[in-house]
Amino acid sequence: MSVLEVNGFWWKYRSYVGAENPYTLKDLSFKVNKGEFFGIIGPSGAGKTTLCYALTGIIPHVFNVPYGKEREHIKGEIKLFGQTLTKVEAVKDEKTGKTTDKIVGMKQTAPRAGLLLQDPENQFLRMDLLHEISFGMEMLQLPESEIERRAKDALEVVGLGNLWPIADLVHPNDLSGGQKQRAAIASFIALRPELLVLDEPMSNLDPEGKLSIIQAIDRIRNDFDITIIVVEHNPEVIQKYADKVLALNNGQAIAYGTAEEVYSQQKLFEENGLYASDIARIGWQSGLTCKGRVPFTVDEMVEACECKPEPFLKDIEDYKPDETAEEIISIKNLDFSYEDGTQALKNVNFTIRKGEYLGLIGQNGAGKSTVSKVISGLYKKFQGEAKVMGQNLRDKKVIQKIPCYVGYVFQNPDSQIFMRKVYDEVAYGLKNLKVPQQEIDQRVNEALKSVGLLAKIEEDPMFLGKGEKRRLTVASILAMNPKIMIVDEPTTGQDFRMSEDIMTLLEDLNKSGTTILAITHDMTLVSEHTKRVIVMHEGTVLYDGSTRGFFANEDLLQKSGIIPPLAVRLSHAYMKKHPSSPCLLNAKEWTTALEKMDIK
Amino acid sequence: MSETDVKARASKKYVRTFIFSMRTGTPIEKLHVVTKVFMIVVLSTLTLYMFDIPVSRGGPDFIGLGLLLVLVFSLLAISRTAKYLVNSYLVLSIPVILAQFFWWLFFSESLPGAKMTFYLWPGFFPIGVSTLVFVGTFVLVYFKTRSITVSLAPAVLLWWFTIMPSVLAHSSLATWIKFPLGGTYSFSLPQWSAYIGFAKALGYAILIYTSFLFLLTTRDVEIGGALRQLRVSFRKAFFVMLMFRNLNTILLDYESIRMAQIARASSVIRSGILSRMKDLAYVSIPLVATMIRRSTEMGVALYARGFEASKGMTNYKETKRLSGVDYSIMALLIAFLIYEVILGHSITTLFGR
Amino acid sequence: MSEGENTVAKTETKFPWSNYTLKLGRGEPVSTTQYVLYAVQIAAVIILSYLSVAVIPLSYAGISIFYFVYPFFLVFTMWWGAWGMLGAYVGCVVGAGVLVGTGPVPSIVYSISDLVPPLIAFVLYRGLLSKRGYDPLWRDLTDKEVAGVKTKRVGAWFWFILINGVILNIISAEIGVGVLYKFGLVATNGFWPFWIGWVVGDFVAMVIITPVLVKGLTSLVERQGLVNHGWIT
Q: DSSP letter at A48?
């Protein structure tokens, strides 16, 4: 039985000023059956979020359509639970006898369908956890006893059962991103929905958060008979759980089938910039197969490797820091506490040399952003010693001038865009530094060229795409010629192509001499680009050394709660069979190693 | 609740309030928000009355003010929130209270009991020589030093010297505190001003700390519950809750935008008020953009929860009942108010001052 | 024309801003996005009011020499009508009143001083000046033309300064400082320094900040259909 039927659906957003918008969804047709786990994948701007809105009635009720132009904006039909959800029909007005086009269908999909969005902050609507869970139920006017029972169960299912006794005392600020997302899931579960749509639920979360969401989804699948639709970039999740996958690009369906069918198509992934797992990439590059197709899981890959003539991999040189380079950042015995007394950093020590490219990783709240903000002079009241380019950050004058040396690119581009023209945006920092106009022109052009946005110099930054905005924020800092660049979550929420672009850009910057500190949860970024990694855990430095040394150490990985990328997990599995093999970090190293195995 | 639940609940010692947190289990936590609002309204009304009693009726009620201050501090101590205040606002509030004292010391009524009326058109040109002296000095010194604090000091001092003659002319005041400057000149302050200044400072302190007491011990959810009990419609009450929900988020957004601005060298080259204002203007662009994005997403989340079609809400632990303690406290406050304001008694006179 | 949904022909459609009137609304109920936005903007004005008053040195009893929230709630009112006015009032009561210790009773009365300027400006601009060729969204302060229609920049600045900078500013200072004086929070001879500080502070903030706000944000808000056609929606 089909829960959702989409037939030839087209959608165009309303335009209030200026030209009409293009169609965001074009001629989509697919079915989702009861109890299925349905995955939707696609690059940024493909229309995945728009599709989620259409499937839950957000379109056309929150994003409405101008009166009289219904047929221009909506074509086709969506059926939910066998009833019409959205469709444009000619309806005859009984009083006047006139026939006009009207949008017919369900006015509201709750509680039978639920929608989870990407940003945990914007979905937590109440001021405490208990009422957040009970909100939907209260609006359904269920009796108190029923609300209490369902709320308790819902919290258990998502793994927040330990918070039940104090649920009415827990403020949203007390919860992490992952906990807020789980609370949102719980609030829908309590409504006993038949369909749950999740739009990139894990994008904004740290590794712990991501894992907790996956566990929650798993439990929901086992305990309830719910149809789940998930928009997700991470191929592991889709491959593990999805019964069917729909790939979108430019509002159109480019692939539809089982996970195996879709994920075996190398050309599809390469042409559309979709995330393929490390294992699949290794498989495609090296030509290894398992069960007649590219391997999907670690076990399949290990099995496939056994067919190689030389059954073990050669030694790989580990990274050694360049002792001759000057110390550019020096942190000794650093302590930092927030206004309300919580201690964020305890006795942090590390030194960074010029020209390094390192990753700063750890769970949320471990202190990564805090220590970076101390280095950039944004947090001033610390104890201990912090020196940047040999200058002491205790000196107020030094802190005032720090932005000239240390560039900090924040995570959210929306909170860093100050101007309405790309040129002005990049020039903003330079104008603050009172750089002469001619030099501003030159630097802006150079910066935009290096991020590939020169063509957009006259455009409005507010209306650029996600990836372009991200590159613009990097360009704005780049124009100030910082010696050190701290980038906060450069690849979070980005699709494959955008991530690659940013990572390449950072590498080029590093090659030209800029020291780069990347704060990230993206272990692929760390394993592919950084040679050295500093792992923060509960305010202290847990590990400071080579990336390879960190990923090879399973105890450290467990303690820090970091989940290594697939290529590393593959290495661990391979090392169990062949103990003398080195720990390979990424798809590239694996591909090279596999080629060498063929040669001998 | 099971035993483990009870233990778990006891282990949650602090719960977040409007600013910082308060300790659970204290008597203050058990009070209904209506009582707290009543308390802050009555206490502030009493304070405003007490420090303004004219001399003909005995002057400001110092003892009453002192009692109120002690009361407020005790309440802060009982709710175990004083430590938050000490770490942050206490330091900032002391100069403000002192400033209150000094303003009244220098600028209070020239005659005790006399009240100034509004200078309205037509009839009286409101700008006098002394005002011009004040503004002129401030502007000149500001352009030299670019610092507001440093410019204010000479402006205030010169202002004082220009109004001194008119104060002296009306000097039927009993006592003066004189600071000899040499020869026949002396710097005089009417003793009365010092009394007024002290009373106002005390009163202002009570006002500030009562407000903080309220903010430190009230949770946002309590306001929603109270609105519900006052039979405010469900959509209007939720509107107010949405406002509170976003207060903290917007403050965090503002701070991160300011940090991003600093990262773009906005504070590297020191410049005056005008460029600081421009910086603030530029903050508005990402701030409003973020506001709009949040509103759209929250609107979607609300719709997805079933807000649009909903006709009302079950009362699931949303409200708190008013207890005997609440009623007694409110009655006591009303009694105090009647005694002091309506009947016109003053606690200081009780002690035969 | 900036609005694409007109099915009823308007009689005097001379200007791009003719849709922005003193009617109650646009004939549709408040949408969920608008509902949330209005709540969010009030929260924003509360925070900005608080920052205007608490963080600046030597501000006192809710008066600040640097009251930078003034242009914000003025512009918000021009966009969002009654909701902006509500934001201005509540922002002052909570942000510049209760949160800095001025006590609820004086705050409720003195905040009327923040309600009056946006209210009168909204009525004057949408009711009178917009028909004379002045943009109620103040784009003519910075742009030479709005949607192809040439603007009268000099006239726009003249009215802007006269209405908002002088008249409404003085009225709000009289109410604000006067109320605080009556409540005994402002010293007798301190009335005029505070009055001057209020007027000058608001004036400077308005002249510097408003053009940046208008130029930087009006198009963003308009493009998403979020400018109110009337008082409520």
A: H
Residue B285's domain comprises 231-314
Q: Which residue in the block uniquely carries the two structure tokens 């509103």?
A: B295
Share of chain A above pLDDT 70, in %: 98
Range of the domain at C212: 32-223
Sheet holding A99-104, edge to edge: A23-33, A2-12, A74-80, A83-92, A99-104
pLDDT one-digit tens code per residue, A142-201:
999 999 999 999 999 998 999 999 998 898 888 988 999 999 999 999 999 999 999 999
In a domain, B185, yes or no: no
Is C6 part of a structural domain of the chain?
Answer: no
The residue-averaged pLDDT of A52-74 equals 91
Residue A534 sits at the vertex; the CA angle it makes with A533 and A538, to the nearest 5 degrees, is 145
Measure A394 CA to nearest chain B CA, in Å. 16
Residues B273 and B296 in one domain: yes
Domains of chain A plus CATH, in order, are 2-257 (3.40.50.300), 355-378+398-564 (3.40.50.300)
Instruction: Give the pLDDT confidence of A551-599 residue by residue, as tens digits.
Output: 999 999 999 988 899 899 999 998 888 888 888 888 888 888 888 776 5
**Subunit contact B107:C190, Cβ cutoff 8 A:** yes
ipTM confidence: 0.91
Nearest chain B residue to C224, by CA: B292
B137, B172, B207: which is the final residue of a domain?
B172
Q: Which of B52, B209, B277 is facing C205, going by the closest CB pair?
A: B277
Question: How does residue C3 score in pLDDT terms, banded at 50, 70 and 90?
Answer: very low
Q: Higher model confidence: residue B157 or residue C217?
A: C217
Name which of C32, C30, C64, C37 is nearest C48 in CA terms: C64
The verdict on a CB contact (< 8 Å) between C192 and B128 is yes
Q: Are residues B211 and B245 in the same domain?
A: no
Please check whether residues B168 and B119 belong to one and the same domain.
yes
Contacts A19 to C, Cβ<8 Å: none
Q: How far is CA A571 from CA A285, A568, B111, C48, C204, in A?
A: 17, 5, 89, 53, 65
